[in-house]
Design brief:
208 residues; mainly alpha; 10 helices
């Protein structure tokens, strides 16, 4: 997959990336005028980008949205429901070729040199699972929470959460064995581990 350089990104992608990276500060008011000047474009593409970013919960009331710990837990509760449902579907409808694709996203190791690759393959792993629903409403809901999912993924990878890739492999093995109950249990535990690990570092960063 080709990685776009900064100049090839859309305005929406540039703003989203700058929110995730911290280049846009959480205490800084987000306005069309300010962003149009920053990105050297008219206000029209900024307005359209902001609409999308609000839908995806990146921005709320003209500020970068920062959920509370309880809101993060509620988001993950919904994510667990969606992904475990999707995994049950995947265990039924996915062919060996689909499972081999899922397995291919577990054949990497976390290191400083390949953090970007890990983020991408981690995203592909979970996107492949959720795609099994073949339900546009579920897929749309999942995409709206992509900002939080990405933030958590970034934290677990940057901070080297133990067992991250191994847990993915265990899920895939259970799917190959068509052990749906085990696969669902492993995925639920995996997501809960992500949540608790990430909240520890996010709370630490916010309280510094």
């Amino acid at each position: 997959m080709k990685t776009l350089n900064y100049n090839e990104l859309t305005i929406y992608q540039k703003i989203r990336n700058d929110i995730i990276s911290g280049h846009l500060k959480k205490d800084e008011k987000i306005t069309e005028t300010k962003l149009a000047k920053k990105y050297d474009v008219s206000r029209t593409p900024i307005r359209e980008a902001l609409k999308q970013l609000k839908l995806e919960y990146f921005i709320k009331n003209s500020y970068i949205y920062t959920p509370t710990t309880e809101e993060y837990r509620q988001i993950f509760e919904m994510r667990i429901l969606l992904e475990t449902y999707a995994l049950k579907k995947a265990a039924i409808v996915y062919t060996n070729a689909d499972l081999e694709e899922l397995k291919s996203y577990t054949e990497v190791e976390i290191s400083e040199e390949n953090e970007a690759q890990i983020l991408e393959t981690n995203d592909k792993f979970h996107q492949k699972i959720i795609a099994a629903t073949n339900n546009p409403f579920i897929l749309d809901t999942y995409q709206k929470y992509k900002s939080f999912i990405y933030l958590f993924s970034q934290t677990v990878i940057n901070k080297r959460r133990p067992g991250l890739i191994e847990e993915h492999r265990e899920i895939v093995t259970a799917l190959f064995n068509r052990d749906i109950d085990l696969a669902v249990s492993l995925l639920e535990s995996h997501l809960k581990n992500d949540l608790e690990f990430s909240l520890y570092y996010l709370d630490f960063k916010n309280n510094k």
